[in-house]
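ugh ok fine here u go
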Amino acid sequence: MKILVAYASAHGSTREVAHFIGRVLYTYGAEVTVANAADVQSVEGYDVYVLGSAIHGGLWLQEIFTLFDRFEKQLAEKPMYFWVTCIRALENDGREHALKYYFDPKTLDAFDVRGKAVFTGQLDTKTITRQEQWYLVANYDGKLDAGDIRQDYRDWQAIAAWTNDLAKNIGLVPEFDTVPGGTLATD
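structure:
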């Protein structure tokens, strides 16, 4: 089975999640390509699409919208799984908020979306822009000490569990000893 894992990442956190998802799928013997959405030249030949975007200002990154626009017809023909990474997921109702407001039903209804997920990201205030800092300040709930907000909040076990469920849903069986025919192409 050929799987495209495409992502849009602002600072690298979502990119690392995409590569992790690709490695998990590879253990099932799948032929996996992990690529930045902006670099995808074709979606032909894939059996499943696993797409993800960071959330900035409550929106997916432009690269994902561009991928949808460029390959809308082809993407609609195969199963799709979609995830987002966002710091908002740390809040008490953050995951529910993200599922309700960060997945545009009109856009996703155009595709065969079989699963979606919200993952927390990584935050380093030294690497984000001033505009991003202002957005965080405006939406900050004050629950963490200032020194605590620079850390990796990604839950790798939750990401692995979602990916394993995805693999099960598309009929893959893990091949832990050997991965005959499986390839993992990354950018």
